[in-house]
Write a structure and sequence with these properties.
Layout (H helix, E strand, L loop, with lengths): L14 H16 L4 E2 L8 E6 L3 H4 L7 H4 L2 H9 L5 E7 L26 H4 L7 E5 L8 H9 L5 E7 L1 H18 L5 E5 L3 E2 L10 H14 L3 E3 L2 E2 L1
Parallel strand pairs: 1-9, 2-3, 2-5, 3-4, 5-6, 5-7, 6-8
Helix pairs in contact: 1-8, 7-8
């Protein structure tokens, strides 16, 4: 009791109601369609490839088989969309990065961990943009904001990579909020067969649940969700 008003325990939830909510979200996300890439103008579309580096897919304390599993799918997409603008954004931290107070040391600048995986680096060409970031949120980089300002002709931003509930979520919401603030209509698109997150256990980081809630969070905030991409 507080001031005569009954209060509920903050983290005591109605498990049955929560399970029904999860089932409803699963059905809603499962009904998503595929995005046909041919319906988007190439010059007006950019693919943001986030954190597909060796330190998250191949080696190091934060590497994940789930992230590694994205590589063939993303490679096929990039090989089929050579004329679409490509922006590679990925961690490249100084040794004294403040982020290491929250996460284990990873992707230090100049190490193998901070390199784009070999299978995808072949798609970097003279027209590609590479942006290094020192936080989980790519929208905090001046380089990405400069890119957005310089390329107002781009109307569609497709975000792929990892991790769904951290870097993908923050970039997608940040990008959408950025354009909303400027009152500019742009599409922020996440095809969820092209994003994933790492898995630990039910007590720390259960990947399927993290994916589910992150995707739903994006959906209710105006991000366009698709199951996959056809080309």
């Amino acid at each position: 009791m507080s001031n005569g008003v009954e209060t509920k325990e903050i983290w005591k939830i109605d498990s049955e109601r929560v399970l029904k909510t999860i089932e409803a979200i699963e059905l809603e996300l499962g009904a998503a369609k595929d995005l046909c890439l041919d319906t988007l103008e190439e010059e007006g579309t950019a693919i943001l490839i986030i954190d597909m580096i060796k330190g998250f897919a191949k080696e190091g304390c934060l590497s994940s088989n789930r992230v590694n599993g994205l590589i063939p799918r993303i490679s096929e997409l990039l090989s089929s969309s050579k004329k679409i603008n490509k922006v590679f954004l990925y961690d490249s931290h100084p040794q004294d990065a403040i982020e290491f107070q929250s996460y284990p040391v990873h992707a230090v600048c100049g190490t193998e961990e901070s390199q784009i995986v070999d299978e995808l680096s072949q798609y970097i060409d003279k027209n590609s943009v590479i942006i290094h970031k020192n936080s989980t949120n790519a929208m905090m980089t001046q380089e990405l904001r400069d890119y957005l300002t310089k390329h107002l002709e781009i109307d569609n931003y497709i975000i792929i990579g990892d991790c769904t509930d951290i870097c993908i979520l923050q970039c997608a919401l940040g990008l959408k909020s950025y354009f909303n603030e400027l009152n500019i209509s742009k599409k922020v698109i996440v095809p969820y067969r092209y994003v994933d997150t790492y898995d630990l256990d039910v007590n720390h980081h259960e990947a399927e649940l993290m994916n589910l809630f992150a995707l739903y969070n994006m959906k209710i905030n105006g991000i366009e969700l698709y199951k996959g991409i056809t080309f």
